[in-house]
Amino acid sequence: MQFRWNHTQGAPDYDCETGFGFVTGAVYNADAALHIPETNSGFLPLWWYAGTPISDIRQSEYGLQATAAEALRIEDAADRRLPVWLRVQVPGEGVYRAEITVTGTDGGEVLVFTGRRRLAWRGVLPTGAQQIVTAYCDVFPIVPRGQADAVASDAVNIAVVGGALSAVALAEAPHTRRIWVCGDSTVTDQTGELPYAPGTSYAGWGQMLPAYLPEVCITNHAHSGLTTESFLSEGHWAIVKPRLRAGDVCLFQFGHNDQKLAYLQARGGYTDRLRTYIKETRTAGAVPVLITPLARNSWRDPTHYNDFLADFADAVLDLGKEEAVPVLDLHAYAMQPIRQEGLETAKRWFYPGDYTHTNDFGAYRMAGFVASALGKAVGLPVADSPAWTPAPPFAPLTPPKDCALPAPDTDPFANYDATRPQEVLTRAEALELAIKALKLFPINVYNDLYADIVGHETYAGTVQCAAQNDLIPAAWIADGRLYPQRTVTAADFLAVLMPGAAGRRPLAAPSPLPDSVPAYARFAAGQAVAEQLISADSLNDPITRSDAAALCRRLHI
Q1: pLDDT score for 251
Q2: What are the helix and strand counts (H, E) for the chain?
Q3: How many CB atoms lie within 10 A of CB 262?
């Protein structure tokens, strides 16, 4: 296959009959097949623009540039950009070499993405200056999130942000070395919301690797929610394994979701399954490489870091020694700047309000470490890509007040309003609700902490998570029992919630409270009053499920 296009040939709309063209907002809305994140450009319009085109393209002396459609709100476009998206159908699966010519239009930063929003190049281009970017694009089947069967990927997607797309040449490159990426949401090709800003886009480090490893093909089969088990059971390994060949590299990073399951613990099912992947990768003649799980921005309070994944990182390091497999210690690398910068400053590397998943800045930084360590481990040339300093905006956009479309069902507290809203909250429910509000990570492991809770209780994992995060007041468990069905007052609930909130953001100094508020809850309740989350005269009243949910919404973690 040989495909060539330059901007003097015009800007045809993408058409599945012709097999190539530009995907504008109107084209995207008209073709449902373009909406599958795993097979499109990885840029999706914000939900309140559903069905409304927000982007178009125009031709200039430099090439094709993105423009905002009339429907895009001015406030949504401020400090954010839109991509030019070219889609080219190819004759079959495999690796394709793209030569992409981009031109600077305003002297600013230009980003070149291929596939599902994989960064191939970034840099500053003076107006009129050109850059030829070489990128190897993977076209292989993939199992979309939430689906049981693989779908064919039959096109190469190219997206340019911040400059003009001037020319593209595309050809088959079957002998290119391939790096297969296996992992979870911290690794996967995350979608970016349109209009785009890197600080408010989820990103996995796997999708940033091409910027550092331009001479190989990255093919990323990581997905959100995967464990070492579900990567196999959901069919992802069935795509990767038969396609491995001599010289390929296969990266494995799991752990964030394995730790939630009792049978996938660090020194048990987790390493057992990784050992199997190592064996099968080697049998295919490929090179297995283990990566310790990305560290979270998790703190007990602003001065005490809380490392939930140490056991999994240590287990991977030990497994690498046992099996003589290279291990890239991403866990230690990521933890170092997080601990040095502290909770608040480190947030700039993560999606706003998220403490596990990086934004584009964070993913790019983590990919730089992975690429450098991988290059040393298996002999790959690594490009000297410039640092990407986080810059605003860091606040996600919000829908217009007059939006008629229903918002996605993402309220974690909705069940507390819908189910028994006026019943008084119990201790077990208080722990569950606090974990949701604090965006912690409930696990399905219980270590027999309290005499009145056994492992088969539905809330046992919640109790374990709360204990690991020091959310359970000592006064509740003085006799070794939790009394999970005992109802709580507002002050009781705040004694659970506010200590965890201190590990998410700075809190106000506590307001003085009367001695009628229990001593163990006085500091936390005083912080809540100072934060204007609740009035002091209601602290000793029982708190209902609905009122507790409303309080969590006001907390704004």
Answers
A1: 98
A2: 14, 20
A3: 15
